[in-house]
Amino acid sequence: xxETSKYYLPKGxxxxxxxxxxxxxxxxxxxxxxxxxxxxxxxxAHALSTHDSEFLxxxxxxxxxxxxxxxxxxxxxxxxxxxxxxxxxxxPRESEALISSASGGRFALPSARTEQGGQPARYxxxxxVPVELRGAGACSRQVNNYCLPxxxxxxxxxxxxxxxxxxxxxxxxxxxxxxARPGEESELEEIxxxxxxxxGNGFGYQRVYGTPERPIDVLAEIRSGDTVLIPxxxxxxxxxxxxxxxxxxxxxxxxxxxxxWLICDDPAHGWVRGTWDSQDVDDRLPFEGPHER
Length: 293
Prior knowledge:
Blueprint: H1 3-7, E1 8-9, E2 19-23, H2 25-28, E3 33-40, E4 45-49, E5 53-68, E6 71-78, E7 88-91, E8 96-100, E9 105-113, E10 122-124, E11 131-134, E12 141-147, E13 158-164, E14 169-170, E15 175-176, E16 178-181, E17 185-187, E18 189-196, E19 204-209, E20 217-222, E21 227-230, E22 234-240, E23 246-253, E24 264-265
Antiparallel strand pairs: 1-21, 2-3, 3-9, 4-8, 5-6, 5-7, 5-8, 5-9, 7-10, 11-12, 12-13, 13-23, 14-22, 15-24, 16-17, 18-21, 18-23, 19-20, 19-22
């Protein structure tokens, strides 16, 4: 098995039971981060047991009702990942939930294994999701910060979305977060789940590479429904091919109990950040649906 095939999961390769994608700590070979992609037909429902992990229910397309412990959360959802941010629901560990959808849809279920269980199940308003325009010029992208320190409380789960206009680069300069260095870097496993705008022919590229002490080497051409696992190492760029907007869902978790997201740039490329001050943010941002061509 090559490095790329070990950490790159093409659409359909991670299916399991009701899930279009099932990544668990066991299947990934690490300790904490997980992700499931669930498709429900109109009128279908799915029972979810969270066991030792906390979860979000995050609509990709469509709406749903999440019922747990006698309480129901109505998620309005969205028509697609490029259309808008979405509302969502949080489920703590050791929960039983029913996810039902009258009209059908696709739902991301990011998760993090945790020994803590102090957070209650609750609803996340889409109006409360901070939307950040990051970078400038050809490095401009949009970040929807759903479940990060300071935006939404959780035990160890970190979740955001990144939307990149066609022709731009995200996750750049390359960075890593695989060492616990207080105040400088946190140890986090990461999952990238991708969707690409267009008629099914859209694509992009994802790079992951390591240090001499911890080598890893991944260069994947990615399409809608593909996933890349990042156990360690520098990751980036995520490249959107011209003509095709790129979306990815980031799921992160790790052993640190302070739930910090601290990154370290590759020193060979970190200087690029200093060029952004003289450039404008791409005027195609923020997203309000796939860009017209």
